[in-house]
Specification:
four-stranded antiparallel beta sheet, 15 strands, binds ligand DP6, Ribosomal Protein S5, domain 2, single chain
Length: 334
């Protein structure tokens, strides 16, 4: 290469309904359990990757700023793409989110899905989505799922090299267009990141083996609820998986407490609404934001109820969206 070679991509965050927590191989980033998620729309990461022969190291800008720890993860991800292409060119990466980074809104999922998509295109790699999912998984587990839109399952996989620990679409977003209201209860970066939280949990939580043993049944229940578009069944299995993951992490030493008071109050509000017949359930990841998933007819009522909860700073409403895709560079800042 003797000149700049660039591409841009957009990917959206996903929210796990049956959670990923724990690794069976940290180096390959292989999960201890399979997981099932929904990919969102409205919220996005847009990333431009430009391989440049004039650069002697990668330059990484995230939301207009440089961050050494994130830059290291981005370079490690670019290394996987460079190895695939058999090149050693450094790159300038410019990535933006339209939602708070590192506050439990899965910015690493959309971030690494967009990076892999744009980086592969800039290098001229002809990759299948499944290949991109494997590469994105190596950079951040949940990113494997943001390669695809709608309802997505990421398989535990059986092979030691991890090539079958890949995500695949279960159902299109349009086939069951549920809505999601994200109640933002803090914009601070989380105290313990997912990778460290998973490591601590595996080493110290007495519930780790029960978590792994019971996951297959949860995946089967969620899969059939999704294929049957059975809201009540999906609500039951999703809240169960969420609370079980947090119980597992709470029992680590020291315990991982990702919620604040408003998170808990939002959980109660969602359950109260469901008690009144409103089709809504909650899920919470490794941070204090609460995601309420509902039928479209209930979206306005759910958002209004969450806005009233003391400590809720904002409620962002979104539908389900598409997987990672190429965009024109002009769309980056749009
Ligand atoms: C609680 O994908 O951020 O959101 O693979 O270490 O980068 P790494 O972890 P990450 O973990 C996400 C954990 C979760 C549950 C989920 O998304 O399934």
């Amino acid at each position: 290469m003797d000149k700049l070679s660039f591409a841009a991509a957009q990917a959206q965050p996903n929210i796990a309904l049956v959670k990923y927590w724990g690794k069976r191989d940290a180096a390959l980033n292989l999960p201890a359990v399979g997981s099932i998620s929904i990919t969102l729309d409205t919220l996005w990461t847009r990333t431009r990757v430009a391989f440049d022969p004039a650069l002697d190291q990668d330059r990484v800008s995230l939301n207009g700023r440089s961050d050494a720890a994130e830059a290291k993860r981005v370079s490690a991800c670019l290394d996987l793409l460079r190895a695939r292409a058999g090149v050693n060119w450094r790159a300038a990466v410019d990535s933006r989110n339209n939602f708070p980074t590192a506050a439990g809104l899965a910015s690493s999922a959309s971030g690494f899905a967009a990076l892999v998509h744009a980086g592969a295109e800039a290098l001229g790699l002809q990759l299948e989505d499944a290949d991109k999912s494997v590469l994105a998984r190596r950079c951040s587990g949940s990113a494997a799922r943001s390669i695809f839109g709608g309802y997505v399952e990421w398989a535990h996989g059986a092979l030691a090299d991890g090539t079958d620990s890949v995500a695949r679409p279960l159902l299109d977003a349009a086939a069951w267009p549920l809505r999601v209201a994200v109640a933002i209860t803090s914009t601070a970066a989380k105290e313990v990141g997912s990778s460290e939280g998973m490591r601590r949990t595996a080493q110290t939580s007495p519930f780790q083996s029960a978590w792994i043993e019971t996951q297959e049944a949860d995946l089967a229940a969620a899969r059939s609820a999704i294929l049957a578009r059975d809201f009540e069944a999906l609500a039951a299995i999703s809240e169960y998986s969420c609370l079980k993951m947090h119980a597992l992490a709470l029992a680590a030493r020291p315990g991982l407490l990702y919620w604040n008071g408003a998170t808990v109050e939002c959980m109660r509000r969602v359950r109260a609404l469901r008690g009144q017949g409103v089709p809504v359930f909650f899920t919470v990841d490794a941070g204090p934001q609460l995601k309420a998933v509902c039928e479209p007819s209930a979206a306005a009522q759910v958002s209004a109820a969450l806005r009233e909860v003391p400590g809720v700073l904002d409620v962002v409403e979104t539908g389900l969206g598409a997987g990672a895709r190429s965009i024109r560079v002009e769309e980056l800042a749009a």
